[in-house]
Design a protein that fits this description.
- With 394 residues, the chain is α/β, with parallel strands linked by helices.
- The chain folds into 2 domains: 3-72, no CATH class; 83-392, SGNH hydrolase (Rossmann fold, 3-Layer(aba) Sandwich), CATH 3.40.50.
- The chain is built from 11 helices and 9 strands.
- β3, α3 and β4 form a beta-alpha-beta unit.
- It is globular, with a radius of gyration of 33 Å.
- It starts with a helix and ends with a helix.
- Keywords: Hydrolase, Signal.
- One of its GO terms (molecular function) is hydrolase activity.
- Residues 1-25 form the signal peptide.
- This is GDSL lipase/esterase.
């Protein structure tokens, strides 16, 4: 070993001597006429070298531990929302721009054309959620309202072709894919806050599944098929929603990713349901038909609620939030206590728009239903307030 190398090791050894157990051996490294006694230095230098390795390894371990602690801390995410992403069908479709081949998903005829093809007499729930007049309001940054990115299409189902269901419009799974593609390309304006994702899909799917059972005369096998098909709808929608959670493009651009999974209304008491039962059915068979619709609607909602609970656990560690809104319970309460919601017409199933005569009521806010399936815009506003309150923890 050269004198220079020995001098460097001795210097390092002297530094380690401040806390090293080898300090006692260091005096044996005497310099003679500017040179280090190599024979005396060898055993001490070997020990010093081992000590250096231990120090380096300890330092690496300490740094790794510090890094782990840092990564385990939740990222400080904004509390406000800058975007609301909507997926669903007519209860969620705000008449957004769409390709001409999907124009039939809008009602471009009287009286719906007065509201740009919406299936009600004004704004739908997700529009009210980000409206400046709605209270409680979603948290926002200053005066900047969350931007609504609506991907819903009236008449759509969960997945075209699933369990015999389908429509000519992009299904919920297609809507989610389109959204994620927009996120990746940068055309979805997520801005700087949290992104709230809203899902309300399944009404059309469940009606189609139910009608298949009606067409089969409510046989035991058709009822079993309806229940099996309902489970498939839940599974496919849940898997599609999870793709949002797994999106690396979204994770890199969003500043918090939250989810609101909205159940279906109580379909067996919605006016259109009674009209869809074949007139040839006896009273008992009609009751059986509506009972099946109640069963598969409840099954669907229970499946979504269970999924939302699972998703909540999955995203909790990264600071994201998941909510399930029980729309069926609201529907039952509006039917049982309509005046609580400003609904004064009787019976509560009476519609504002009479499709037989073409007349439209002059007091729509006194109604629950605009037509036999869709609520009036004032009920959409009630839904928005309920969902906002849920998100705010009120």
């Amino acid at each position: 070993m050269s004198p220079i190398a020995l001098r460097q090791l001795v210097s390092l050894a002297l530094l380690l001597s401040l806390a090293s157990p080898f300090a006692a051996a260091l005096p044996t490294l005497q310099e003679r006429d500017g040179a280090v006694d190599a024979s005396a230095a060898a055993p001490v230098l070997a020990a010093v070298s081992q000590e250096l390795v231990q120090v380096v390894n300890a330092t690496k371990l300490s740094n790794a531990s510090a890094s782990s602690v840092s990564l385990s801390k939740k990222v400080s995410l904004p509390a406000y929302y800058s975007a609301l992403v909507a997926v669903g069908a007519s209860y969620t479709d705000n008449a957004h721009a769409r390709a001409s081949k999907y124009s039939s998903s809008l009602r471009q005829y009287y009286p719906y054309n007065k509201w740009n093809g919406r299936y009600t007499n004004g704004k739908v729930g997700v529009e009210w959620m980000v409206d400046s007049s709605t209270s409680p309001a979603l948290k926002r940054s200053g005066s900047n309202l969350p931007k609504l990115l609506d991907y819903a299409y009236g008449g759509s189902v969960v997945q075209n072709g699933l369990s015999g269901t389908g429509s000519s419009s992009p299904a919920a799974v297609d809507q989610i894919s389109a959204y994620l593609a927009d996120v990746k390309s940068g055309s979805a304006a997520l801005v700087s806050g949290r992104v709230l994702h809203y899902f309300n899909s399944g009404i059309n799917s469940q009606y189609q599944i139910w009608n298949a059972a009606l067409s089969a005369g409510l046989s035991d096998s058709s009822i079993a098929n309806a229940k099996s098909a309902t489970s498939a709808q839940v599974s496919v929608l849940a898997a599609a929603i999870r793709t949002i959670k797994k999106s690396s493009a979204l994770a890199s651009k969003a500043h918090g990713v939250d989810f609101v999974v909205v159940g279906l209304p109580a379909l067996e008491i919605v006016p259109t349901s009674a009209y869809q039962v074949p007139s040839s059915f006896s009273a008992d068979k009609k009751a059986k038909a509506l009972s099946l619709l109640k069963t598969i609607t409840a099954q669907y909602n229970a499946g979504l609620k269970s999924f939302a609970a699972e998703l909540k656990t999955e995203v909790k560690s990264v600071g994201d939030r998941v909510y399930f809104y029980d729309l069926a319970s609201l529907w039952y309460d509006m039917h049982s206590n309509p005046k609580r919601y400003g609904i004064t017409v009787s019976p509560v199933t009476k519609t504002c728009y009479n499709s037989s005569t073409g007349s439209v009521c002059s007091n729509p806010s006194s109604y629950l239903y605009f037509d036999t399936l869709h609520p009036v815009t004032s009920v959409h506003a009630i839904i928005a307030k309920k969902v906002n309150a849920l998100v705010l923890g009120a």
